[in-house]
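Our platform keeps sequence and structure together, in a single record for each protein. This encoding replaces a full spatial description with a residue-level series of whole-number codes. We quote a single record here, exactly as it is kept in our systems:
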Amino acid sequence: MTFSTANLCDRHSEEYHFQIAEPVFTSYGAKTSFSGKITTLKTFEDNELIKIVLSEKVTDRVLVIDGGGSFRCALIDNELTTLAVENGWQGIVVNGCIRHTADIKKLPIGLLALRTHPLKSHKKDQSDRDLLISFAGVNFKKDNFLYADSDGMIVSETMLS
């Protein structure tokens, strides 16, 4: 699907059943425009469940990770991003840090994160999946729709066209 978040806002501003994320993310993947149904994860400095979820074969899905905004380690690296590409994920949004960005920027996936950090995360297995999570002024809910491009990120309960 080809779209522009600016055009989506213009077309749907009358009904306004979407949320617009605060502009706090940097784009790191080769795809600057991506969309899909949301899968959510809530974790803190732990990427064990992230690997499990990204190992699942999907179609038109985006993984949204609430990492608590931690700047103490990275939740996503080039190996996890490659795994996501191989399994059909359209994008990843990280409320936290990533690493190996030189490799990630070559991969055909959308990836938004707050910052980069060289340290890998821990393996504590203390994460939750498919919960309502909130950050950047947006509520992210499983199976809602996410649209992201160079202008911003929109989340909607329904598919926008």
